[in-house]
Design a protein that fits this description.
Structural class: alpha/beta
Mean pLDDT: 83
Shape: globular
Oligomer: single chain
Distance between the termini: 32 Å
Largest sheet: 6 strands, mixed
Length: 600
Amino acid sequence: MNILTVDGITKAYGERKLFDKASFFLQEGEKAGIIGVNGTGKSTLLKLIAGLEEPDEGSIVRASRTVISFLPQHPVFADDDTVLEAVLEKSGIEENGEGESEAKAMMTRLGITDFSEKCRHLSGGQKKRLALIKVLLSPSDILVLDEPTNHLDGQMADWLEDTLKKRRGSVIMVTHDRYFLDSVTDRIVEIDKGHIYSYKTNYSGFLELKMQREEMEQASERKRQSILRTELEWVRRGARARSTKQKARLERYEELKNRKAPVEEQQVELSSVASRMGRTTIALSHIGKAYGDKTLIRNFSYTFLKSDRVGFVGKNGCGKTTLMKIISGQCAPDFGTVETGSTIKIGYYVQECELPGEKRVIDYIREAAEIIETPEGKITAARLLEKFLFSGEDQYGLINRLSGGEKRRLLLCRVLMEAPNVLILDEPTNDLDIATLSILESYLDTFPGIVLAVSHDRYFLDRTMRRIFAFEEEGRIRQYEGGYSDYLLRKSVEGEQKDAGAVGCPGETGEQKASKNDKRQMPRKLRFSYKEMKEYETIEADIAFLEAQIGELETEIPKYASDFVKLQELGNQKEKLEAELEEKMDRWMYLEELAAKIEK
């Protein structure tokens, strides 16, 4: 049964048309993810569904008595309300009842522990988590969520993932967390050039189906061009419209000529840009930082290598952004030293940045540089903006007319225009669309400098990082090799060993023991890292290739029984290949075991 039908809607703001007779439907119990390039209307579509805005044309039909709960991208609360009052207000939950206990449990889970704190003291991230709790507690048939995973750390995202998967009602959300989309959704709704394409599948299935759709469109266009060439030749031969048949053929030619070709999807295209880096990079020696009684960083030392890809993870408020500010020189440590090489040029992509709204887009980028050097040659500010999907008209518009995601994309453009050789990315995946993220990830593959990233996006960390630093208890920062999934696997193994070695500690309260038991019972999520996934896809072919090479050598060796030199050469090759094969087989067994654990 359809619980929601979007029928032929058109929506425009001035000359900018977001939707052009777009349609899709949502069935009862379905969980849909909306994706598309920033500025295409994802948040607007959510507001239309929630009834906060109306389409210019078309209709949005909701099933009878359907109740919708809406999580906005930037929620607002009354300054004088306490966090508990803000959650309970209009949610149908009575104070001092079972619902209040559930609200408090959720707030604790999402890092809000002072229930009497005034909303005016909350950060933007805390307000977003508070609004998420409110909509989850409110009885509804459809949850409409705009960027629900923003400002959630890994454990929080896992909890929300499990919560939504268990929920019986329908969910429709905008998120750029690809692991989250893959796990939770069973329908993907793509907004592309004013049209809506709906796919009954999760994110992985969507990628396959979209590729098939685009291939069909390209095949149809090739066929159109072929017929058009044939008809054009007929017209050029001087065909006259004397008969009905000839008139029909001329009309067919005109129709083919005027039919629009499929527009190729625009993507952000980047060439690696970086200043030259000398021998000295950035060296941290025994760094310490505290605010009041809370120690954020304790005795941390590390020297960054020239091509380092380092991800920093930890709970919200643990000190990740503070460390980035220390590295960039914006904040001084309480203890220790930071040595920065004379050639180091840092580009800092910040989590929250107020852009000059009354300034033109092109002027904001020209403040960084007018021209930069790339491997393909010089590139102007205007050309770089085009690569970031800002057309000539958009470039001369004011910044305050951009969507939140477009402002983030503009900020990234500004950072790269400065040609840094050290990139610090603080929550780069918040508000960036998936297409931009994919290109950014490819850009980082060839970036010749150092990349440091603070992120809760598990896919991004797996895809781009080769080392993880995790903020742990009492300001300690621990190093893990590999991506985010490798880090989780290592933590999982350590947790099992710790659980096996200790039952409880003297002096623990019942509440503390219950908290520990709760953590032990939480499902530990295993995933392939990006590199492991790629290796798993090709390792059997690699093994077959090595076996074939060894087989060929075994056939060749008897032919050179009297040629000792050639025989020794072939024997050495066979020995080397057999060693490679044994190593590949060991790796294959490990990956197979890991795949079985993940599936289980």
